[in-house]
Automatic annotation (TrEMBL):
<dbReference type="InterPro" id="IPR001845">
    <property type="entry name" value="HTH_ArsR_DNA-bd_dom"/>
</dbReference>
<dbReference type="GO" id="GO:0003677">
    <property type="term" value="F:DNA binding"/>
</dbReference>
<protein>
    <submittedName>
        <fullName>Transcriptional repressor SdpR</fullName>
    </submittedName>
</protein>
<dbReference type="InterPro" id="IPR011991">
    <property type="entry name" value="ArsR-like_HTH"/>
</dbReference>
<keyword id="KW-0238">DNA-binding</keyword>
<dbReference type="GO" id="GO:0003700">
    <property type="term" value="F:DNA-binding transcription factor activity"/>
</dbReference>
<feature type="domain" description="HTH arsR-type">
    <location>
        <begin position="1"/>
        <end position="87"/>
    </location>
</feature>
<dbReference type="InterPro" id="IPR036390">
    <property type="entry name" value="WH_DNA-bd_sf"/>
</dbReference>
<dbReference type="InterPro" id="IPR047796">
    <property type="entry name" value="SdpR-like_repress"/>
</dbReference>
<keyword id="KW-0805">Transcription regulation</keyword>
<keyword id="KW-0804">Transcription</keyword>
<dbReference type="Pfam" id="PF01022">
    <property type="entry name" value="HTH_5"/>
</dbReference>
<dbReference type="InterPro" id="IPR036388">
    <property type="entry name" value="WH-like_DNA-bd_sf"/>
</dbReference>
<dbReference type="InterPro" id="IPR051081">
    <property type="entry name" value="HTH_MetalResp_TranReg"/>
</dbReference>
Length: 92
């Protein structure tokens, strides 16, 4: 879970996730949306991948990225459980 929150803490990575919400994109398409170097984008994509937030698939010479919706469901479940525990703590 720490890797997920670390990945979400960066605004560039959050923007990449928003872009992927619209559909799968190649690394080049993602890089074209930013004014930073391609190695920097690659670093951001690797952190997102390590956190499990994105999936990658090599197609020919391109690597395509997509959202890993399963991990987002797990994060939402964690938040709901966290909130429920907070509410039950307030009722005691």
């Amino acid at each position: 879970m720490n890797d997920i929150f670390k990945a979400l803490a960066d605004p560039t990575r959050r923007k990449i996730l928003k872009m992927l919400r619209e559909g799968d994109l190649s690394a080049g398409e993602i890089a074209d949306a930013f004014y930073i170097s391609k190695p920097s984008i690659s670093h951001h994509l690797n952190l997102l991948k390590q956190a499990g937030l994105v999936l990658s698939e090599k197609q020919g010479q391109n690597v395509y990225y997509s959202l890993n919706t399963t991990i987002f469901q797990e994060v939402m479940q964690w938040f709901f459980e966290f909130m429920e525990r907070g509410e039950s703590d307030e009722n005691q």
